[in-house]
């Protein structure tokens, strides 16, 4: 979306003037600011974006953008070009780009907290939704808005508190997000009847409310299951990551707060084809609210082939450390890697469905560790595996990408700062992933994206299609 795009009518412009006071009116919150709010910035871009899509479809609608093989059909639709995802594109060699910007570029360009070194996830959310890098004031305003929206309904608090402690944290997380459907602006407006042009506004409001509440939900689950059940209140003058760290009980360590800022930023979005992103988009295409859509995405994220992977990596590293002790020699590492492969298992955290080089998200976490915990024994182990594993996997010959992905590092960082409860790691991933999938849901409603409905065939029908006899 070009920054020069403007609203198509004076009426639309007037409905999104810069707010000048702190108040609540018709369920919408207004904050004193001389800069454009996120909602205003996005609203200004919608007409131009809709026209761009219409023109593209009109002039190139019959253009073939790819072909589908039977292997792709039976291989989980791997690599089939069929989704529209504005926020990020994943290149096999270059890694992820958020609105065209690499992770190092985002680390440099996105606003930071006073005295902080890592980008604020508020800034990435703004970038993903609008395509623009926000100002420090715009990010500060967004932090304040999320803090103002963060209170949980009493019944949701009670629902979380009544969950048995042995119910997996991700199941509790999904239950709480689903229950927030009761608060949905979109669902209430749809039931009353609203014009399609209003869909995005109510989806925006739901998304903002939902994102604002996720740290408190996550912290309440964590404190109930692993600690004393007491959750600190949101500090209205602090940023999103600080409040998450504080509610979890780790804000006394400023480096952990910085880690949360980095973690939430780099885990947020990874194209639209992964399970959590695609599921959120798919369910949203049926005009389900942001709450129901994200809850569906979280249920996909909970799977061991998706968000659970970082937990599996840490478990494997701990087992390796127990087996080899303090001997981190190349020979010992190589020996353990081969024992893992020869037992029929994969090396967790290595390989990726798309990437064919080291994941830039891994690199950003490695850089963080080199700066903050260079002498940690587990980080030294991770570094040795990084040195040896690509060669072993290449020799093994069954891995297309022998390099580490983001999951190979994140668990080690969390456990260093004392967040050792591995079953909770995917909840943190879920908080972050919401920042990536909800901007696209807002965009989908703004541009009038249709319900997703691909064509399916039976095996017999596919056989006939390719001329095979079974």
TrEMBL record:
Signal peptide positions (record): none
Keyword Transferase: yes
Keyword field: Transferase
Coiled-coil region(s): none
UniProt xrefs under InterPro entries: Citrate_synth-like_lrg_a-sub (IPR016142), Citrate_synth-like_sm_a-sub (IPR016143), Citrate_synthase (IPR002020), Citrate_synthase_AS (IPR019810), Citrate_synthase_euk (IPR010109), Citrate_synthase_sf (IPR036969)
Highest taxon, organism lineage: Eukaryota
Pfam families reported for this sequence: Citrate_synt (PF00285)
Keyword Repeat: no
Family: Belongs to the citrate synthase family.
UniProt-recorded name of the protein: Citrate synthase
């Amino acid at each position: 979306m070009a920054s020069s795009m403007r609203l198509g009518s004076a009426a639309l412009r007037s409905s999104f003037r810069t707010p000048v006071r702190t108040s609540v009116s018709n369920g919408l919150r207004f904050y004193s600011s001389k800069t454009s709010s996120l909602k205003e910035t996005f609203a200004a871009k919608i007409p131009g974006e809709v026209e761009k899509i219409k023109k593209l479809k009109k002039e190139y609608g019959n253009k073939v953008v790819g072909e589908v093989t039977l292997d792709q059909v039976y291989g989980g639709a791997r690599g089939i070009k069929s989704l529209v995802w504005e926020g990020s594109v994943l290149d096999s060699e270059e890694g992820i780009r958020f609105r065209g910007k690499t992770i190092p570029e985002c680390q440099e360009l996105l606003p930071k907290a006073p005295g902080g070194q890592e980008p604020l996830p508020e800034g990435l959310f703004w970038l993903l939704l609008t395509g623009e890098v926000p100002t420090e004031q715009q990010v500060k305003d967004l932090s304040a808005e999320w803090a103002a929206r963060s209170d949980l309904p009493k019944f949701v608090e009670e629902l979380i508190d009544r969950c048995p402690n042995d119910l997996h944290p991700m199941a509790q997380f999904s239950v709480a997000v689903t229950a927030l459907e009761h608060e949905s602006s979109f669902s209430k407006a749809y039931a009353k009847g609203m014009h399609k042009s209003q869909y995005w506004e109510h989806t925006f409001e739901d998304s903002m409310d939902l994102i604002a509440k996720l740290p408190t939900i996550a912290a309440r689950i964590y404190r109930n299951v692993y600690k004393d059940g007491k959750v600190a209140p949101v500090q209205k003058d602090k940023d999103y990551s600080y409040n998450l760290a504080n509610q979890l009980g780790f804000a006394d360590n400023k480096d952990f707060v910085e880690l949360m800022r980095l973690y939430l930023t780099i885990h947020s979005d990874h194209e639209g084809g992964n399970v959590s992103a695609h599921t959120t988009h798919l369910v949203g295409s049926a005009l389900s609210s942001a709450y129901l859509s994200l809850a569906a995405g979280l249920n996909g994220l909970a799977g061991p082939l998706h968000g659970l992977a970082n937990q599996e990596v840490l478990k494997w590293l701990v087992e390796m450390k127990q087996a080899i002790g303090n001997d981190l020699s190349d020979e010992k590492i190589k020996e353990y890697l081969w024992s893992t492969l020869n037992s029929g298992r994969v090396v967790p955290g290595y390989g990726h469905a798309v990437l064919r080089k080291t994941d830039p998200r891994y690199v950003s976490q490695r850089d963080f560790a080199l700066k903050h915990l260079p002498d940690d024994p587990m980080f030294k182990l991770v570094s040795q595996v990084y040195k040896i594993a690509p060669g072993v996997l290449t020799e093994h010959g069954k891995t297309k990408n022998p390099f580490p992905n983001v999951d190979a590092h994140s668990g080690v960082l969390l456990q260093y700062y004392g967040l050792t409860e591995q079953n909770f790691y995917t909840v943190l991933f879920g908080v972050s992933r919401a920042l990536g999938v909800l901007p696209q849901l807002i965009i989908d409603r703004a541009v009038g994206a249709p319900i997703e409905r691909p064509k399916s065939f039976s095996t017999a029908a596919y056989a006939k299609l390719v001329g095979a006899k079974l």
